[in-house]
Write a structure and sequence with these properties.
This protein has 117 residues and is mainly beta. The protein contains one helix and eight strands; from the N terminus they run αββββββββ.
């Protein structure tokens, strides 16, 4: 009975000209930064990872080199904004995951540092 009533009400609104289009706004883009500067280095050089994740209590940064066989190695847990210097010896991908916070959707992203040979 209830579903028949709902259908009848919906049909009445559509056929009586009372239907209206409702626009749902797109969510704003995530406003975070995670980058390596420089992104390409020579063997023995260092690069600096920079990040800013507004609303995150802390972030976990992990690395995976070509020889790690898909295993992530923890670099450390840091504040929601900061930087750390790293010296990879081979091409390495760094993954950042935000933790905690009530005003941010936690997600992961990665930065690849390429070591020239």
């Amino acid at each position: 009975m209830k579903s028949t009533l709902q259908f009848a009400c919906a049909a009445f609104l559509v056929f009586s000209g009372c239907a209206r289009e409702v626009r749902v706004p797109e969510p704003p883009p995530l406003d975070f930064v995670f980058e390596a500067e420089p992104a390409t280095i020579a063997p023995g050089e260092s690069t600096t990872l920079h990040w800013n994740i507004p609303g995150a209590d802390k972030v976990l940064i992990e690395s995976a080199g070509l020889s790690d066989r898909r295993d992530l190695r923890p670099l450390g847990t840091f504040a929601g904004a900061g930087k750390v210097e790293v010296s990879p010896t081979a091409d390495t991908t760094y993954v950042i995951t935000c933790q905690g916070g009530k005003t941010v959707t936690c997600a992961s992203t990665s930065v690849r540092v390429r070591v020239l040979k």
